[in-house]
């Protein structure tokens, strides 16, 4: 008798409490299913089930309980191995749900969806744009992009690139208020702060590669959007401390001036894609991750 088939019959019979019901589910005769159970018991030298005289009602013996645990693990590994091989031939399709920070998603992900869709026309994309650190498992997200230092978790990760901070303001603002030369000079400026970050909140900004310098600041605007702070800074309202991917374009266009201070900006970590810890993620997840790695490898954000 095929041992793997016998294990499947045994596991199904243990689940439904009946050999005949297990046989119907698997698609074989009750007589053949009984032979599989008998063959297992003969090979193992133990009884796996307590049976009624009519052999219609089953309960596991102590040995059966132990063997059931082992069979479930072995069969799961076999199914997973087969799925991994099969998935290489499966074309990516279905809905792919991605959770991404608002500014990054608008600037660097949404404009690239068209090319991805041309490559994989059967994958539909849902972009969930949010700066909140949502639980991707609880939210049923297929993957997410996180910027900064990652916390320890069972999630899998791929690094897409680096992210670094900039301190900047408009030329008009600096003409009126002067140019800060040190982090302590910021105490005399209108600092526009981001409410969702501990390192650039409304009470202090943190500098130094490891955050060893904490500078008290104040300002007349706080926001939970980097884009809102960018717009205010470009208009001349104050100084902002934001990631390069938000302010880089405005700096290149001369709308903002990069400020060089006496302490380095804090190292906030990289840009990562994270996804559930499936040993073999679905094809739609794999192709998107490969695409993002390719895109940002050629054009860092």
TrEMBL record:
UniProt keyword terms in alphabetical order: DNA-binding, Transcription, Transcription regulation
Start and end residues of each HTH lysR-type domain: 1-59
CDD domains: PBP2_CrgA_like
One term of GO molecular function: sequence-specific DNA binding
Pfam families hit by this protein: HTH_1 (PF00126), LysR_substrate (PF03466)
GO BP: any one term: DNA-templated transcription
Keyword DNA-binding set for record: yes
Database matches in PROSITE patterns: HTH_LYSR
Record-stated family: Belongs to the LysR transcriptional regulatory family.
PANTHER family named among the record's database cross-references: HTH-TYPE TRANSCRIPTIONAL ACTIVATOR TTDR-RELATED, HTH-TYPE TRANSCRIPTIONAL REGULATOR
Name used for this protein in its record: D-malate degradation protein R
Organism: Oligella ureolytica
Gene: dmlR_2
